[in-house]
Amino acid sequence: MMHRKNALSEGFIIYDTETTGMPPGARLVEIGALKIKDGEVVDQFESLVWPECPIPENVIRIHGIDNHAVRNAPTADQVLHDFFSWANGLPLMGHNISFDASMVACEAQRYQMPLPSSPLFCTLKAARKLLRLESHALQSLVDELNLPPSTHHRAVEDARHTWHVFQHMMEQFDPEEVFTAMAQAKNLSDHGVQPTRISPSKQALQEAAMRGHSVEMQYKLSNGTLVPLSVTPRFFWSGKSSIMMEALCHRALHYKTYRLDRVQSAQFTEISKKCVPKRTE
Fold this sequence. Notes:
The chain is an alpha+beta fold. 31% of the residues lie in helices and 25% in strands. It has helices at 57-63, 67-70, 76-87, 97-110, 123-130, 138-144, 155-172, 175-182, 203-211, and strands spanning 12-19, 28-37, 40-48, 92-94, 120-122, 215-220, 226-238, 243-249, 254-259, 263-268. A 5-stranded mixed β-sheet has the order 3-2-1-4-5, sandwiched between helices. A 5-stranded antiparallel β-sheet has the order 9-8-7-6-10.
C-alpha cells in the first residue's frame, strides 16, 4: 500500500477514545485500536476505563457508555500501560487525532506516566484537504463514501471506520500525498498540559498533589457561598479564566474540578486522610 518508505512503512496504530467530555479535564471511558501491518489489520486492542467520576448524562447519550458499564473496568493508568506496551512505539493515526492524543497524554500525566514520542497522523486533516465534501465528520464520510456501515461512537468501531477512510484515500490519491496531508507537527508526548504557575498562597495544593496528601480548603461556590472542603489534589491545568485543579472530594468520593481563584484558603490536614474514589453504579 505504501509505495515509498516513510514513517508508516513498518506498521502503525489506528485508535479512538470515548470520554466524559473535552480534555484536559475530561476522563477516558473507552479506548479502542487496530494494529496495521503490510496493509492488513493484524491485531486489536479494546478496553473500557473507569473514569473515577460519574459520566455526564449528555455524553452517555452520545456513546452509550454509562456508569454501570465501567463500574468494574480498570483505571486509565492500567489501561494506558497495556496500550503503550501493545502499541510498542508505532505511529498513531486517528480521525481528529489531536483530541485523542490530548486525552491520552493528559490521562498519562495524571499518573505521572512517561509518554512515548509516537508520530501522529490525522485522517480528518487529510480528508479536509483531499476530499471535497460538505462534511468531514467520520460518520458523514462513512455514509458519503459508501464505506462499510457499523456502530458509531464506540472506540474500536470508530477506529475501524478510520481505517476504511484511510484506505479510500490511499486508493483515490497518490499515497505520498495522503501521507503528507495526514502528518502532524506534534508527537504524542507534545500533547500534555504545560506546567502551571500557582501563586504562593495556593502552593500547598500543588505540594499536596506531589505528596498525595489531603488538604482542608475554604472554597467559594459560583453563588458566592463559602464552603469547607476536604480534598486530595492531583492534577492542574490552565483554564480560560483560572487555573483548574482536579482533586478527590472526600465527601462525594469522586474526582471533581475546582477553580483556584475560588480557593480562599488551603492547608494540610494534621493527619492525611486516606480516601479513595467510590465506584458508582
